[in-house]
Amino acid sequence: MFESIGFNFLQVIVVLFLSPLLKGILSRWKERLQSKKGPSIFQVYYDIWKLFHKDQVFSHTSTWIFRFTPYLVFVAPIFVTLLIPVLTAYPLFFAFMGDMVGGGFVLALAGFFASLAAVDTSNPYGAMGASRTRMVSFLAEPVFMMVFFTVAFVAGSTIPYIVQQYWVASPSNFLAPSHVLVVVAFFMLIVAETGSIPVDNPSGHFELAMIDESKSLEYSGKGAALMKWGSAMKLYVLFSIFSNVLVAPWGLAVDREIGSVLLAIPVTFLKLLVVGAVLVIVESSFSKLRLFRITEFLGVAFIVSIAAVLTRLLEF
Amino acid sequence: MPIPDTTFAQHLNLLCAGLFLLVTLGLIATRQVLASVRIFILQSCLLAISALLIGLVYGSPHLFAVAAITVVTKVFLIPLFLRRRLGPDMHARREVDISVGIPTALLVALGLTGFAYFVMHPLVQATTADISANMPVGTAVLIVGSYAILVRREALPQLMGLLAMENGAFLAGISIAPDLPLIAELAAAFDVIIIVVVLGLLTKKIHERIGHTTVGELDDLKEGEA
User: Is a pLDDT exceeding 80 seen at residue A190?
Assistant: First the structure.
């Protein structure tokens, strides 16, 4: 039991300290693909380090929500990390505390508070960004629910470890049409949730076009560092669910040896980089959608996820 | 035929069928002409792969010929011809009109897919269990293709719908009739080329005469009045 708890905390440490690297590598690759030099892959670490040594400034009109939100944004992905397979193929100590839907709600709670905090400062751009984020996420919500219904229906459970075992169990499960459709729908969901390019431009600094970025505009010092770190961890967590549970449930540690768990760290990180490479290519080959086209984008994701349920339901 | 090989081929074929359905939904969702032609190419590639895999499962050389014919005609000849004849119309980066909203069109397409699965259920029992996805998916694509013809208002996307229908019929056909005589396949492939040539030329003429190919507005008998 103790090693189970230990591995669980190892997962948290991996997510904590590798997530800025993942984000750094992705932004580097993206710039490279656009024939620019790009920042160092450790840039996110430098940013977080720098911000932790700066003072914080709070607006007079803001309330406790504004001060509390960075901690929540930072902690929520850590909680989800306890529930999902980051390194091991077998369930760890906290695995049955919540399922994928529960994890989604924890992330949604952080998103909700981030929107409240953006409104809290009475900065006009904050409120605008917050309302746009709400629009994107309430459109993403049904897709999210349908994806997990499909997964629950196909694998008979929403606990990510069991789902992952199910895909590994036989190639006919893995290559079934419903699985392909679920993967596509979930990828579109990741694009929407991480604010990547067909939906939002993560590196944009033009306030009027911002969706996700504008929420953390008012933060400075430690608050900004925590928000940045939290969003890097959210990316890592979403990528982990995508690659370890849905797409490529291989390469995780299968036995309880400490060596194989440590070996799983670089292997899973490589898998995340492959997912990231796909995301970078998607981001560089599409242009940003107009705001009201986002409904169509997520509508397509919703239809795809329903098609996944339907093909599964009617197959046998 | 070694057995483990074919089970893997069957699973890969399932994957192909899933992607085939997905790509067809993409045909409904896309707004640009060039994108819909690319989707058609992708769809034809998937059809060829599926034919190859089923040929492996049944050990039938006819299906390898089907795959080869599909690649030659649908992946190379037809897009090449369309690009030659309808270059400007195809490369126009404007958005193609669709008579209902895209989410609505997709929902209807999804309903049609469900309908196809429902209708094909008795027939699916007749095919080998692991390539059973071809029948309903092919039928679904057949129906969705005809729906695409209904909702699209311009000639070229309608043509793409027609070709998608044809692909869907082929996908369903190869799973139940692996020993179809080669001459029938050749005739079908040739037919498609003729259809594309005729419709392509017609579209080009319409375009030359009245400057656009919005079929929905062609409701006058005499030209030059509207």
Answer: yes
Strand-pairing partners, residue A88, are A253
Give the helix, strand, coil percentages of chain A, each rounded to 5. Answer: 75, 0, 25
A156: left (phi over 0), alpha (psi -120 to 50) or beta: left
| CA–CA separation, A257 and B96 (whole Å) | 58
Residues in chain A whose Cβ is within 8 Å of chain B: 171-172, 174-181, 184, 295-296, 299-300, 302-304, 306-307, 310-311, 314-315
A261, A14 in Cβ contact below 8 A?
Answer: no
What is the C-alpha end-to-end distance of chain A, expressed in Å?
41
Number of domains in chain A: 1
Q: What is the pLDDT of residue B212?
A: 67
Diameter of chain B by CA atoms? 68
The pLDDT-based confidence of A71 (bands split at 50, 70, 90) is: very high
Tell me how far apart the alpha carbons of residues A62 and A118 are, in angstroms, rounded to a whole number. 10
The domain of A123 spans 2-315
Give the separation between CA A114 and CA A193, rounded to whole angstroms: 13
Spatial distance between the Cα atoms of B98 and A137, rounded to a whole number of angstroms = 27
Distance CA B117, CA A3 (A): 49
* pLDDT tens track for B151-172: 887 777 888 888 889 888 888 8
Could A172 and B29 be called an inter-chain contact, meaning their C-beta atoms sit closer than 8 Å? no
The ipTM assigned to this model is 0.72
Inter-axis angle of helices B155-176 and B182-210, nearest 10 = 170
